[in-house]
Specification:
This protein is of the alpha/beta class. The chain folds into 2 domains: 268 residues, Carbamate kinase; 98 residues, Roll (Archaeosine Trna-guanine Transglycosylase, Chain: A, domain 4), CATH 2.30.130.10. Helix content is 38%, strand content 19%. The chain has 15 helices and 14 strands. Strands 1, 2, 3, 4, 5, 6, 7, 8 and 9 form a 9-stranded mixed sheet that branches. α2 runs parallel beside α11. It is globular.
């Protein structure tokens, strides 16, 4: 069935999120295995050697914990039992990934609540950016031990899409245990045809998903299409491929794939800039000097505290704020997501970035507004 997908070049990318499901890490519902994970790890290593960055979103904690308690794991299928299995299996899951790499692997446990809350969202974003800057490989999983609602969904596909937008990825790679998207479930319909490319995830495309979930995991093709839909809205393309096929996985390091490419509605940059331009802003704003205005407008720089004159109004870290030049004329320079609350900005205005922590007693980084979270007026 896999031969039906044609070989295609991967889209150009610098940073990718790779989602790996339980069916690849615990084949046939058994213990953790490197049977399929090793090939995916070689792709990650080759990407890092080529100067790219990869964030791994990995399922498998519950599957890894189950063999540790044997028959006792079957006593209860309730949430608490599954949470206990996740806690037991998480260390083994991270140990599996660390065993593949010379670079440090960083465990990051998130819930959807972490990504819905703006302050926690920014904290997660800052941490992941710093880990990538340090050359580490973030391995992200849902915090199944405490995420009751999310655990019942078991939906790391959608989490991967959210993470892709969080880290400004260019590409979302979803390793499945089927070749890609078919017109019907290939396991039950002999007439199912492979789809090499999907322009948009419509209701008709969703209807093709079928029940392709594995026994080890709880996600199926439907959640993968939902993830692709979320990624497309952020300008990120998605590639679905068979992570159990060593030949298919081997193509990735050579810049090719066989599977389904789900296109984005616009480029990642265009999608993010669109959101920054149109997301509602709070009252008040940040007043900056002429040097900072020139840097923001002509060089696409981040806004540093040294270029800030004052903060108007009362806004919080993570709010969308307007940026102005000249308090009286209020020339609109741009808008962006602030890393600091108004009360903090007033204290660090006109100061050097190295003074932030000594003044505030903490630091969220050197930028008042990071260039990736800022859009200048046209």
């Amino acid at each position: 069935m896999q031969a039906g997908f044609r070989e295609q070049p991967l889209p150009s990318w610098r940073r990718a999120v790779l989602k790996v499901g339980s069916s690849l890490l615990a084949p046939d519902g058994g213990m953790l295995s490197d049977r399929h994970a090793a090939g995916l790890a070689r792709f990650v290593s080759a990407s890092l050697a080529a100067g790219r960055e990869v964030v791994v979103v990995s399922s498998g904690a519950v599957a890894a914990g189950r063999p540790l308690v044997g028959a006792r794991s079957e006593r209860s299928a309730g949430i608490a039992a599954r949470q206990a299995l996740a806690a037991l299996g998480q260390t083994r899951l991270i140990a599996l990934w660390q065993g593949f790499f010379s670079q440090p692997v960083a465990q990051v446990l998130l819930t959807h609540d972490d990504l819905r809350n703006r302050r926690r969202y920014l904290n997660a974003r800052s941490t992941l950016r710093e880990l990538l800057a340090l050359g580490a490989i973030p391995v992200i999983n849902e915090n199944d031990t405490v995420a009751v609602d999310e655990l019942t969904l078991g939906d790391n596909d959608n989490l991967a899409a959210i993470v892709a937008a969080l880290v400004d990825a260019d590409l979302l790679l979803i390793a499945a245990d089927v070749g890609g998207l078919y017109t019907a479930n290939p396991r039950t319909d002999a007439g199912a045809r492979p789809l090499d490319e999907v322009g948009a995830v419509t209701a008709g495309i969703m209807a093709m998903a079928g029940g392709t979930g594995s026994r080890a995991g709880t996600g199926g093709m439907l959640t993968k299409l939902e993830a692709a839909q979320k990624a497309a809205a952020a300008g990120i393309e998605t590639i679905l491929f068979d992570g159990t096929d060593a030949g298919v996985v081997g193509l990735l390091a050579n810049g090719c794939f066989r599977g389904t490419r789900l296109s984005a509605s616009r480029t990642r940059l265009a999608a993010r800039k669109y959101w920054l331009r149109h997301a509602p802003a709070v009252g008040g704003g940040i007043l900056i000097d002429e040097g900072a205005a020139a840097a923001l407008s002509s060089r696409g720089a981040s806004l540093l505290p040294g270029g800030v004159l004052a903060a108007d109004g009362d806004f919080a870290r993570g709010d969308m704020v307007e940026i102005y030049l000249d308090r009286e004329r209020r020339i609109h320079i741009g808008r962006g997501v602030t890393q600091y609350a108004a009360v903090d900005i007033r204290r660090i205005a006109r100061r050097h970035t190295r003074e932030i922590e000594s003044i505030l007693g903490y630091s969220y980084g050197e930028n008042v507004v990071h260039r990736d979270d800022l859009v200048a007026c046209e």
